[in-house]
Specification:
It is built from 14 helices and 17 strands. It has 545 residues and is an alpha+beta fold. The strands form 4 sheets. The protein has a 5-stranded antiparallel sheet with strand order 2-1-5-4-3. The protein starts with a helix and ends in a 5-residue tail after the last strand. About 1% of the residues have low confidence.
Length: 545
């Protein structure tokens, strides 16, 4: 319409110019030479005016073509976007929307231009709630007067819920009135789902790492500890900060470092997760045995370190050791029962024949009595082997521990003199009597004191002290200043067949433990290499004296 008006104005102006100039020349009565000059000037001016008009038209056409081309580019760009893009005027009417928007709101075959969100709800009632919500958010953007971001949830006809991150950009005229509103919405449903899965994965990882009762550690490729879980503090007694950033080998004792290094090398070379037993030293000084599993730690399929899980199996190992000792003791018991049975048979025969000889030969009766007494003693010794085999009926009587110890020291005096070791017996006043089997306690004291004499260097005494102990009990303490016992050997004291003596069987202390146990008492060993050994025997005192 505008082009037609411009062309019409141009034609009217041209006709007016031609007829007006002709009229003026006639009216002025110009001669022919002047007319010719005027006609030429008039033609030149007309040509200039026409050329200017044509030039102006060409420029405008080029500008128009450029604008159209840019509009097509912009339209192509907008329609190729995977976001929805909507342009609205200051009154909220839709000016233009890209294909994604039309498809999203099912407006592909609807004349949407010039319509507001409320108008579009009548065309597509399914999106009524979404469109009315958009109108409210548009008003918020206008009030803010600047770029406005928010998240919108849009329910699709398929029942799927989509989440869009929306940006609204309000544009104003120079006078401050509303000019246009640009709305851009990006589908972030998949991103939110991924973030949620990542968050759940992180929470699962945190639960596995933070709340795992076992020790969990992370080590980088240089063998430096990067993380430790709270279980480390419970198991080891150290704070995590004390070892994070330090080499893993500072936590593990020297004997186990080769094992853990071998595990790391297997993982670093692409091998499968490995399991081995390693020993760490806790803050209290106690050594703990860990069943350690190491697995590769990968990020984007790139090996960045090693994750280790250490379960404390110290008590399990101790239980296994106790079971092994029990099994060994059971074997010893069976062997003792068999030996006692085999020895008793010939003893019975010998004793019978000696008694027959004694009747026939009264002249050597004194010698026969000695032989019979010794045979009875051998029989008692054999009977004591049965202590290892099965529980024996013990006859408890009230006895004085001091008297028993005096008998034992008198018996061992000759041996102590041969070793140049003095036996020093000291007892507190008013030591109560106890219920015991005197012969069995003698056997225990003989074994313990004899060991102390053998371990003591010449000239060093063995001190035997009897005193009242807490909780209605008495303490018999045998202390020497001998060579002492190593911590490793001390753990195995009382174990059958464990002995460092050249001809020892390890059964002496085993029987002692068994006898004291039957008396409801305890034997405690304390020793240090080069400083000597202390043996504490605690026996209960009957409540009624």
């Amino acid at each position: 319409m505008r082009k037609s008006k411009i062309l019409l104005l141009y034609l009217i102006a041209s006709f007016i110019w031609i007829f007006l100039t002709e009229y003026l020349m006639k009216y002025l009565g110009l001669n022919l030479s002047v007319v010719l000059i005027v006609e030429r000037i008039k033609g030149i001016l007309y040509i200039m005016m026409t050329g200017g008009f044509i030039y102006f038209s060409l420029i405008k056409k080029e500008e128009f073509d450029f604008i159209k081309q840019e509009e097509r580019k912009l339209s192509t760009l907008i329609n190729s976007m995977v976001d929805y893009v909507i342009f609205k005027d200051g009154e909220g009417r839709w000016i233009q929307a890209n294909q994604f928007s039309l498809k999203l709101f099912q407006l592909e075959h609807v004349q949407y231009k010039g319509k507001t969100d409320i108008d579009l709800t009548n065309l597509n009632p399914f999106y009524r709630k979404t469109l009315l919500q958009n109108k409210e958010i548009d008003e918020l953007a206008w009030k803010k007067g600047k770029q406005f971001r928010n998240e919108e949830k849009i329910l699709l006809p398929s029942g799927e819920m989509k989440t869009f991150e929306t940006i609204r950009v309000p544009l104003f005229n120079p006078d401050g009135s509303r000019k246009a509103l640009v709305v851009i919405g990006r589908d972030i449903t998949e991103r939110l789902t991924t973030e949620q899965k990542l968050s759940e994965s992180q929470q699962q990882y945190k639960s596995l790492f933070e709340y795992n009762p076992d020790l969990v550690f992370m080590v980088n490729l240089n063998g430096t500890i990067t993380q430790l879980n709270p279980g480390f503090e419970i198991i080891s007694g150290y704070r995590r900060e004390e070892f994070v950033g330090k080499p893993i080998f500072e936590l593990i004792i020297a004997e186990s470092r080769e094992k853990i290094l071998e595990q790391f090398n297997i993982i670093l070379s692409g091998g499968s997760p490995t399991v081995s037993e390693v020993i760490i030293k806790c803050k209290a000084g106690k050594k703990l045995i860990l069943n350690c599993t190491t697995v590769p730690m990968k990020i984007n399929d790139q090996l960045v370190g090693v994750i280790g899980y250490g379960r404390d199996i110290t008590k399990l190992k101790e239980t296994e050791e106790n079971l092994r000792k029990t099994e060994k003791l059971s074997v010893v018991g069976e062997l003792a029962a068999s030996v006692a049975h085999e020895v008793r048979n010939p003893l019975t025969s010998i004793k019978g024949f000696i008694q027959l000889l004694e009747v026939e030969d009264q002249k050597n009766k004194r010698y026969f009595d000695i032989i019979l007494n010794e045979l009875d003693r051998i029989n008692e010794i054999v009977s004591e082997l049965l202590v290892l085999a099965k529980p024996q009926e013990i006859v408890f009587k009230k006895c004085s521990v001091i008297q028993i110890l005096e008998d034992v020291t008198s018996l061992l005096k000759s041996e102590s003199n041969m070793q140049s070791v003095e036996l020093m017996l000291h007892a507190d006043d008013e030591i109560p009597m106890i219920n015991c089997d005197a012969n069995q306690l003698k056997q225990v004291f003989i074994n313990i004191i004899k060991n102390a004499i053998e371990a003591s260097p010449r000239g060093k005494p063995v001190q035997i002290k009897v005193s009242k102990h807490q909780n209605k009990s008495i303490l018999i303490q045998v202390k020497d200043k001998g060579i002492g016992i190593s911590a490793e050997r001390l753990k195995r004291i009382g174990e059958p067949f464990f002995s460092h003596k050249e001809k020892g069987t390890g059964l002496g202390l085993t029987i002692c433990f068994k006898i004291i146990e039957s008396h409801h008492g305890k034997i405690l060993f304390e020793s240090e290499l080069g400083k000597g050994t202390t043996v504490d025997i605690i026996l209960p005192v009957p409540s009624k004296q």
